[in-house]
Amino acid sequence: MSGYKRVSGDALEYEVFARKTRGEPLHQVGSVVAPDDDLAMAYARATYDEERWCEMAIVRKEHVIELWQPGET
Amino acid sequence: MADPSRYADPAFGRAGAAALFPDVGTHQNLVSLSDLVLSIADNKQMLGLRYAEWATRAPSLEADIAAAAMGLDDLGHSRVLFGCLEPLGSDPRGPERESDPGSLRNLAYFDEPWTQWSQFVAANAILDTAFTAMIEACVGGSVEVLQHRLRKMLMEERYHFLHGRSWLRSGIDAGPLDRAWKEAIEWFGPPDGETESLHREGRLSMGPDQLRARLEEQLEMKAPSVSVDWKTWDPLRRRGQSGAIDQRTFAMLRGLEEKKYAPPSAAKQSSV
After folding, report:
1. ipTM of the complex
2. How far apart are the C-alpha atoms of B251 and B85, rounded to whole Å?
3. Chain B residues with beta carbon closer than 8 angstroms to that of A43
């Protein structure tokens, strides 16, 4: 989750989280760029469909509260 | 005296009817359900090709993937629709389609490749949804082959609709949007034309007014005020504007474009 922005304009960036089994924690599998939540969900489903996930969630990148960035302490 | 309406039978052909009854050349008499299905097929084929052109040019990788996926969907839908022509009793496709791009029944919106993302989004939101509304009308109508074969398209089109609506809400230029609305309304046909006749006969579950209302309801917006000169409207191509797709796209449709890139051995083989 760096400060890099993939698209300009009104589109939003979302982080995609998923897990394959109930026993493992959710982890970040990638990100998607979409103009709204509805399409972001569809994009996440279509883009990260190689695995049989038992759970998938997306979060708007702007809603993630970062405690520190790489290189910071 | 012969009843002119008898010659609305597709088997008789439009040219024959027009020659015998030049003064009754109204849209209702000369355009069949097959003509309408061919128009949907041609437009979906062109929509699929134009979507595919954006598979590496959209604003994000996900939109690239969506463009490719929707393009494939629409090309597949066009093949299913072409396959319905024979069971419908008449296939309006003639040999002119091999040489004259003006004989294809696509909307003017698809004549040239799109140069702006706004054009893609307007087509995705307005025109793709307009075609889906017409397919809904076919599925809801009384013609069995259309009821059965087109139903699956409605499922696949849900993603296209979601995609178009979301990008539309993010805001696009007014030019492509207004043009797409105008061409969609033209494509539904005049209030007293053949689409309305097919609706009254029960072969379509919606006529032009209902199709327009359906489109507005789906997109949760009112169509802009559109004035259409139905006298100059072409009932077969379902458009008021003359013109045709560009030569490169036409060559691609006919399978000529890829031959340029084929290895010499393949060209030799194909000429044997």
Report:
1. 0.73
2. 23
3. 62, 65-66
